What does this fold into?
Amino acid sequence: MMVSTKGRYALTVMVDLAKNAVDGYVSLADIAERENLSMKYLESIISMLNKGGMLESLRGKNGGYKLARDPSEYTINEILLLTEGTLAPVNCIMQEGVECEKAATCSTLPLWAGLDGVIENYLSGITLEDVMSGNRKKMLGEYCQKCDS
Amino acid sequence: MMVSTKGRYALTVMVDLAKNAVDGYVSLADIAERENLSMKYLESIISMLNKGGMLESLRGKNGGYKLARDPSEYTINEILLLTEGTLAPVNCIMQEGVECEKAATCSTLPLWAGLDGVIENYLSGITLEDVMSGNRKKMLGEYCQKCDS
DNA sequence: ATTTAATCCTACCTAAGTGGTAGGATTTAC
DNA sequence: GTAAATCCTACCACTTAGGTAGGATTAAAT
It folds into this structure.
């Protein structure tokens, strides 16, 4: 599994905020209840989003979180990267300038690089707005049966 | 990480066999030495490939393995599926007919389904022959700088 | 027939990552 | 000052990853 619950829940939280924090802040307790997820676990996840500059937060009573930008200005790629660290499908492709020692002669490396590119390309092309508004055509593309009807 | 060493080594073994087992069988010891991988570990991996019908094996002295078909008749998708079990990027998408209970109302599901489709589409479009022969254009596609020159 | 070299099979093990839980400190609105 | 919220630091059970170990079985060569 490439994307763990951390990344999945992070996206769920972002979508929830996009839908529900239109004016003012929304508390984590509200999100957890709406999405039926553990509030304590979400706490650690939303903390990453907050520190990564994705959110604005307000402490104290009536506090909570809201998006720092417009939903159309977040790519899914950057949201997932923040919580997952990397989205590379294998750990042998270059990360932070460090490449595998066998890279020069490895027959399989171009495959993994290509796969990585395809994934990044897909996730960078979809915004939080697309997910929030249910843009099936963009998300499912040619695989979508309902998109024609 | 979506693809573990199991899948990566499985592909490495397949490529090695495609290159070296052109006539007759090749022993696991030879493969392990050539690829600089633990023979004992490879043993468990090649066993999956063998049971999955990807290989033909011969026991006893001068035995070993060879491909069951022509390299052009294996997709990377089926090789990886055999060792990894699944290539789904998240565990909330439908597997073996079992779908998430929240599927009907989940905003993020189409995204994961789309991502899954993109991955499967890519890996199904590339054959063992492509990897073996270093078909960079097919593997790297638009991301390949060297492909033009 | 015996040796040798190979696959096959079962069990085990350590380290890291996943998916949380627990408890309290701090901040701010009312 | 109190209630309700974020923030922060530990901890923990379980699963998976990435192997290792040892022997049983098979088949070719001598």
DSSP finds seven helices and two strands in chain B. The domain at 1-149 of chain B is CATH 1.10.10.10 (Arc Repressor Mutant, subunit A). The two ends of chain B are 32 Å apart (CA to CA).
